[in-house]
Design a protein that fits this description.
The protein has 1 helix and 10 strands, in the order αββββββββββ. The protein is α+β, with helices and mostly antiparallel strands and about 190 residues long. The strands form 3 sheets. It has a 5-stranded antiparallel sheet, covered by helices on one side. A 3-stranded antiparallel sheet has the order 8-9-10, covered by helices on one side. A two-stranded antiparallel sheet has the order 2-3. β2 and β3 form a beta hairpin. The longest helix is centred in the N-terminal third of the chain and has 55 residues. It starts with 12 loop residues before the first helix and ends with a strand. The relative contact order is 0.16.
């Protein structure tokens, strides 16, 4: 009978070190890939959120402008004077009752303006109106907001050109969004 001897010597120390070095290199590469993916994912999430926020702001402005009779030069909102210029727009909107019917001869006033990096909408509703008065912050992170009008005589203007640019810095990356919209006053 022949006896076969197996040589079970295992891995040498050098072989173990090479295997560990390869494993560390692969793990390092995975960490870099994960980190890059995470930064890219956060950038895209912020970009999507900022785009949604700018679209929501323009929707608020468009909804009020479509109902407005005219753009007014200025109006006093609870003692604070707001004047239409290139960064503020003041709208005169016919008042509506609880059923959505227009109340003759009564008007609500809405102002869209920047304060710091926030875009605000202030509403002053007539007593006969079903709308509620007050100021609401529509969005923040606004870099610039510019309005232009198709007529220097604001009460004759029928269109508002709104240019909204938003920007934030997140994780060392600058995320920006710009939205330009032409809004027509439907009641003109």
């Amino acid at each position: 009978m022949k006896i076969i001897k197996l040589n079970n010597r295992g891995f040498s120390f050098v072989e173990s070190l090479v295997a560990m070095a390869i494993l560390v290199y692969i793990l390092g590469a995975l960490v870099v890939i994960y980190s890059s993916y995470s930064r890219f994912y956060n950038f895209l999430q912020n970009k999507i959120a900022m785009g949604s926020s700018s679209r929501a702001a323009m929707k608020e402005l468009r909804n009020d402008a479509l109902q407005a009779d005219q753009i007014v030069a200025s109006h006093s909102f609870s003692g604070i004077q707001r004047s239409t210029d290139q960064h503020t727009v003041v709208l005169e909107i016919p008042s509506i009752d609880g059923s959505g019917n227009i109340v003759d001869g009564k008007y609500d006033y809405a102002a869209f303006y920047l304060s710091g990096d926030g875009l605000y909408r202030t509403m002053q509703a007539d007593a006969a109106s079903s709308r509620t008065s007050g100021a609401v912050k529509i969005t923040d992170a606004v870099q610039t907001l510019t309005f232009s009008y198709d007529n220097q005589a604001l009460d004759q203007a029928t269109k508002i050109d709104a240019d909204l640019e938003m920007q934030i810095v997140s994780g060392g990356q600058t995320v920006s969004s710009r939205l330009y919209q032409v809004i027509y006053l439907r009641n003109k």
